[in-house]
Write a structure and sequence with these properties.
By secondary structure, the chain is of the alpha+beta class. The chain contains 17 helices and 22 strands.
Length: about 525
């Protein structure tokens, strides 16, 4: 079956795309003990550090927090009943086209045995019957046809009024042309122009667009088109996703930290960076300095702005780069509420559910049906563990208020919530998701920057091929590591993506460039 699937992908042109050029004649390891400092211990930073350490480079990884992970980090929670649980910044779906991130994870679990199929994940609403995108045919363009046939929100008689010409850019993604034409248009305006039926707009596109931590009116239409291309229209893996069956710390971050240490990397948490000095010297908040030939800045947008702004020599010698970093913005805040209940929700509820049409609530995750630690607590107490998530929450509203709003909204959709009481909770608001605001692609910095030896990585960096969220972070970390390896005449690590151009895009004969230097 696997061989047949691989053959079909090759025949239809939907096999994963190898972005990096093959350099089999180059050495695998660097020719000498070169040094690199990676700032930021999230997916991007760990990917870069791991790739460089594998090739024999002396790597120091600096993380300002207590633990690795970035927006996937975890922390312990002592419940009122005395038991210990691990919580994080929110549920993440590990889609099967996350080729680069999965290859990183395979270094600590070659079979990815800790990932389990999440199964059905519906979209629910007070107004409309639920939608379900699982088990669609995965191969483009048949996946689009199967959605049109199966979705109750896409009735043919209603679609006749849709502007088909306005929808063509969804099928014709091409990196430069799409961003040139649509980056200054909002995602909301693009969706308005489609003339979709109200139900299809609410249950399909609104939910999808909102999943990227940006309000539609403030988000680039080009970015939304790219994400639709990446997650659905050019993705041979389908829309099914997996999830870790343990908490992120035990399944991901502890094994990756151990792997880095085994490779000789110096992994330091509680090590905030204050500024950079060309040369390069990384200056920590406590006053110590670390010299390195290469620096990878793999932090969130706000932290990148702060570090560069506090580096006067970098600003003076590379003003255009400094301006690009200063222009970075964070998206709307996101809210996460983990609640432990004294009973369970209905048995037919899916482990993950998207929510359409609510003012605050965007998704619900049943951790006791996906994660072993939560399942043990639920089995012992007869309760359940839910996470409520608002991807783009209202500003200036505290975490407790947002948690109450989300629970109230869920109760209106799932009536059984009325009989369940909260026995404990953990709620927080995050402010570190990147904004993809209108026109920002033109000034967004790329992996390779103006200052020689300084590189950027993160899910906010301008990328030369379609990717998003965790995969964008991992891919940028690989590109940063490969740029450093190239300076030492070492072979690049493989970089994969979905097909870079849409089904209706004009064919290009040359490999896309990494993007303009900043």
């Amino acid at each position: 079956m696997a061989k047949r699937s691989t053959l079909l992908r090759r025949i239809t042109g939907n096999a994963p795309h190898r972005f990096d050029a093959a350099h089999a004649n180059l050495a695998y390891s660097v020719d000498r003990r070169a040094t690199a400092v990676v700032i930021g211990g999230g997916i991007a930073g760990v990917t870069a550090a791991l790739t460089l350490a594998e090739r024999g480079m002396a790597v120091t990884l600096l993380e300002r927090g207590h633990r690795l992970g970035g927006r996937l980090t975890t922390w312990p929670k002592r419940l009122r009943d005395g038991s210990a649980q691990v919580v994080e910044h929110g549920f993440h779906g590990f889609f099967r086209q996350y080729y680069n991130w999965r290859n990183v994870l395979r270094q600590v679990d070659p079979d990815l045995a800790f990932l389990r199929p999440l199964g059905r994940y519906p979209v629910v609403s007070r107004q409309w019957p639920e939608e379900d995108f699982t088990d669609l045919f995965g191969m483009p363009p048949v996946n689009l046809l199967s959605l049109l046939v199966r979705s109750p929100s896409l009735r043919w008689r209603e679609l006749r009024h849709m502007d088909s010409r306005a929808a063509l850019p969804l099928l014709a993604f091409a990196r430069e042309e799409t961003y040139r034409s649509f980056d200054t248009m909002s995602a909301a305006t693009f969706l308005d122009n489609l003339g979709l039926p109200e139900r299809a707009r609410a249950m399909l596109f609104d939910v999808f667009a909102h999943s990227f931590f940006n309000h539609q009116a403030e988000m680039s239409a080009a970015e939304m088109i790219m994400q639709f291309h990446f997650y659905f229209l050019r993705n041979p893996e389908g829309l099914d996703m997996d999830a870790p069956d343990h908490d992120y710390e035990s399944a991901i971050w502890s094994p990756l930290a151990a792997r880095l240490t085994a490779l000789g990397a110096d992994v330091r948490t509680d090590s905030p960076v204050d500024h950079l000095e060309p040369g390069w010297k990384v200056c920590l908040a406590g006053g110590s300095r670390i010299a390195a030939e290469h620096v990878v800045l793999a932090v969130d947008p706000a932290a990148a702005r702060e570090i560069v702004a506090a580096s006067p020599d970098v600003v003076r010698t590379s003003p255009q780069f400094a301006e690009r970093v200063a222009a970075l913005r964070t998206a709307a805040p996101y809210a996460v509420a983990r609640i432990w209940l004294d009973g369970d929700v209905a048995p037919d509820r899916a482990p993950f559910t998207s929510v359409s049409g609510e003012a605050t609530l965007d998704s619900v995750t049943l951790y006791h049906r996906a994660e072993q630690e939560s399942a043990r607590w639920a089995a012992r107490t007869g309760g359940s563990v839910l996470e409520l998530h608002a991807y783009a929450a209202p500003t200036r509203v505290d975490a407790a208020t947002l948690a109450d709003r989300m629970r109230t909204e869920l109760t209106a959709i799932w009536p059984e919530m009325r009989r369940l009481s909260v026995v404990d909770s953990d709620h927080r608001v995050g402010h570190d998701a990147p904004a993809f605001d209108l026109g920002s692609d033109a000034t967004r910095p790329s992996v390779q920057t103006g200052p020689a030896g300084l590189y950027l990585a993160g899910d906010w960096v301008r990328m030369p091929f379609p990717c998003a969220l965790m995969e964008r972070a991992a891919s940028s970390g690989l590109l940063a590591a490969n740029a450093i390896l190239a300076r030492h005449a070492a072979r690049p690590a493989p970089v994969l993506s979905v097909r870079p151009n849409g089904l209706l895009a004009r064919r290009v004969s040359r490999r896309p460039k990494v993007g303009p230097s900043a």
